[in-house]
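Revision sheet: structure tokens.
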Amino acid sequence: MEKLISIQELEERAKMNVRNYEGAPARRNPYELGRNYDGLAPQAIAPALGSFTMTIVNNGSAAVDQSIALLPAYFTDKAQVKNSAGVAVAAIVAEGQIISTVNAVVTATGKPKSINEFLAFVKLNPVRITGMKIKVDDSSQFVNDILFRKESPLKDLGYITKSPANYQNSMQNNDKIVEIPLTDAQFDNQTSVVTTIGAGRTMTITFFIGAIRNEAAMLDAAVKSASGQY
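Predicted:
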């Protein structure tokens, strides 16, 4: 006879599938602390389950600084994604060429898979980000902040920014690499992430993944658990 199991027990077992589970959310909401907040950061990036890397190149003899959405929330039109000044971005990042004008081209590539696939995944499966590693061809790129904004059609939820220049370490040999630990960052369909790529600059940014809310995997695990396969 098939073993019966309560809904409550089923849900508790399903939670076990969320690897690196972070427990109850902190009471403090960093987005409520005010604009342009770049508060105290931990000393190191927490251990990650995996990572995703984007490389963005802004080149050409007529290249200019370009505001790029690294994560567009639920928006599909670049005109809907804004920087900290409330100005629409020049493009939403995607695999391949994202801006092309006379003598000015911006291209982007993802690793281990395409940027398009990564963005589609996080829209359906919220991902906690434990930190970022940013590598540039010139340290002048670090003056451009990275903005994290909570999006809602009902009200303004605010944003926070991280300033790579604040994480440069005079003790390290390479001034073209910074690591930024994060404690409250989540990629999902209600979060936009925006930065500016300077004219002539190349930026490679790696996002370290701490946990994934994978509904499909959770259901599969719950069913197997209920049927005694675990």
